Each structure stands twice: as C-alpha cells, then as structure tokens.
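Notes on consecutive records. When two proteins share a document, each keeps its own sequence and its own token line. Never mix them. Below: protein one.
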Amino acid sequence: LHSDVFSSAGGLSLPVFNQNNSLLRMVEESPAPRLPIKIYFDHGDTGQDAGYEGSAMRFYEALLKKGLTKASVHYLKFRHADHSDVDWARRVDEPLRFIAGSGCSQRVSGESNFNSGSDGLDLPHSLHSVVKL
C-alpha cells in the first residue's frame, strides 16, 4: 500500500473491479502498511455506480484484513448518486475533510439531507443521502 510514499488516498465512484480487480489484488498481495495511512472511497447507487457495492465491500474488507482500522478507511455509499462530475462535485468535500483530518460533514454524522441547495445546483434537499459503512 506504499504508506512510505503516500499518507492518504481517495477515490470517488471508485470502480474497484476495473482491470480484472487489479486494485483489489494489489491490496491483497501487498504487505501491510508500515506507516499510518488513510483511505477514502465511495460510490453512488444509481446508473454506472449501481453495480459497485459488491466489489467495494470486498475492497473495504481487504483493507481491514491488511490491518487498517475502520477509523482509517472511510467507505461511503451515496443514495441517488451516479458516476458523474456533477455528483462528484456535490461530495468532493468528504474525501478532503477525511484526508485533512477535520472530520465528517453533517450529512455523514447523521443528517440525511445531502444537498442544502447552497451549491448552486438547485436540487431538492432529499436528492442524496449517505450510508456510512
């Protein structure tokens, strides 16, 4: 996992299954990280992202088996979100907050309304909600 080079990594709508599960295999075949490392990844449940959950869960479990803690791996599933730059823009603060160490946003800590309408996208408050695993 190259914790000697990277202290954190993040992926929005991370397609763990791409290239014959190469990312999952890399985690399974790598030695446990020697230094602390934070990993964030997420996906939606709509469109292209709808098929990501199974491989994402295997990836999450593989990271935990490598010795990472639940506090150092942040895996989120966003309801009504797809594999698109619009949906990524709505949630890019999540990996940035996690990696910077400033904690979760209100929507992860319990508030179900994802979009406050302040992002200029004019979407209803109930469009997105998040499930933290």
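Protein two starts on the next line and is unrelated to protein one.
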Amino acid sequence: MRHTISIKAVMAATLLIAAVVATACQPAPVPGRNPVIIVAGTFSPSFANEILANRLRADGYDTTIFELPTLGAQDISLTAQALCSEIDAVQAKTGATKVDLVGHSQGGLVARDCVKNYGGNTKVDTLVMLGAPNYGTVLTNLLAALTFGTCLGHTACLQMAIDSPYLNALNAGPDVIAPVKYVSIYSAIDELVIPPSNAALKDGATNVELQSQCPQRAIEHLGLIIDATVYSGVEDALAGREIDPSSGGSCRFAPMSDAADSTKGGAEDAPPDAAPLPDGSYDVFVIDADQDPKDERTVVIEVTLLDGEHKGEVLALGCPASELVPGGADPIELLGETGVLAVVDGAPRFQLDR
C-alpha cells in the first residue's frame, strides 16, 4: 500500500525541525531590551511563529510566543485578558517593567484589546501589528452570511466582520492608547484582510503598506510572519527607529570606487548618480563592505544581483551604519549576507535577510 504525504505536511515538519534547531543556538537576550511577546493569529500554532521568534532572539530579544486559546475561535475579549495575564508572567520572569507586542492577524486585535481595556497600556511599550484586521474584513462578513450568521460557532470570526459590535467598540474613541506606540505593517495584496487598508489605524499610529517600501514584494497574509523585509520593519519599530511609511531611500547608490577603493574619497564626496536600476525589488548578495573613511555613520557595500534581467550586475550602496552594523560591528561581517534591495522613485533601500 502506497503512503502519500502532502506537501503542506512536509513543509510544516521542515519548519518545525528548523525552528527547534535554531532555538537551541540562540544568544542570550541583550540586557535592557524589552522582552517581546508574539501574539499569534487565528489557527496559528506556536511553531508557525518560530521563524519570527528566532529572528527576534538572534537580535537579542527575550521572546515568547502566545498561542491564542482555542486557536482564536473564542471571544477576542477573553483572549485579550489571557494575553494580559501572559504579560504579567513574562514581567515576573524577566523583571521587565514593559514588554513589546508583535501581533499577527487576530493577534493584533487581541493586543489592542488588552492595551485598551485590561490595563495593558501600563505594561506595553510598543505594539507592532502584522496584517491585523483593525477595521474588519469582508471575508468574515461573507463567511457569516454563508453560515446563516453563525460562522460555525467561531465567535472571533463574527467579531472580525466589518462593522461588528466588537470592532465598533474597540475602535470607539482614539485608536492609539497613550503612552503605547502603535505600528501597523500590512500588505496591499493581503488575501484575508479585505480591503487591506482596513489594517491601518488612526490617531497617530504609524502605518506601513509593505509595497510602498518594496513595490514588487508579493507577500500575502501568512507570509507576513516569515518575510525578512517585513521583519526589518518589526526590528525598526522595536528599536525605536523612525519608520518612513511612504518610501525607503535610507541608502544611496554610490560609485563603485567608494567600495573598491575607499582611499579615493568618502561617500559624501561622490556626486549623485542616476539610479542604475528601475524601480522594483531585487534579491542581492553582499560581496564587499567597508566603513566610509570620511563618515563613520555610513557603510559602503557592494552587492551582486541574484536574479532577473540584471542578474550578475554589481552595484555599490552607501547606507547608514546604524542599520547595517548596529553596535559598531565590523562591516566585513556583512560579507556573504543576502538581502533585498528595493528601489522606489529611484531611491534605494537595503534590508538584510536576517
């Protein structure tokens, strides 16, 4: 008798094994950083969030995954209370006065509810949401209609419908509850939050549509917790770095001589060049890196493009050292790293696949 194994089962097993191996090799948390709680999405088991968790751990964050009770089927308010209890437990374990939350999908609503209604505003410093249906999704309205208003007993499904009593109450008053900092990152092609713009918040929240930074980044709902470019936004938010919601442009195209021979002058001496690439998103590999000799705040790197019609081309970029080598690390450590180069309106933005 022939046994068959689905591709999804193999992928799930592979992710689980990779997560277990990676978890065993993580460095100790960096003192002084807030612990992070990842608030999982609907039907999202803990292991599905391990890639995100391990990236955070690798960057020095004490990281806990909060799997939704009933995997997110129950009343969101009950789950929010459970999250607030989890925050207390993490604070007791770590001694931290504040935590940061990263909520995916329904997890973003759970986090907002905890902050607004159950005392989380005194315990949370930064709340980052990934594809959270903050103002509902048509998909759940449709599911409710097809099941005669029941969503097959899935209470949270009904609550995530546009104009549901739950969301109307959650969104009554200001979206941002001081002093918590709110960041909502979402994809313009999210197939579950419809319309995707319903993930955005008002009243001072930072809203980042992924494609405004990386126009060709084809990331949908589930990909938000594993994509390296999305993680770079999470990392910026947790580090307190300012996020420009409309464009990248934190780097600049540099003459090749900047990286090939740093003795010929610093990055600031180089004349501005026309963008050597059309707008788009490109996978790249770092082949050289050096500190700008006249500006210690800048690192000049050479990258080679890995695919597309520009495959094999080599470009030089001048980027803030604080983004590429935080803590004053040697730029040479960047050699062999992969990343994503996004060009928006001719301006480059580079993110490492870490």
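For the record: The chain is about 30% helix and 20% strand.
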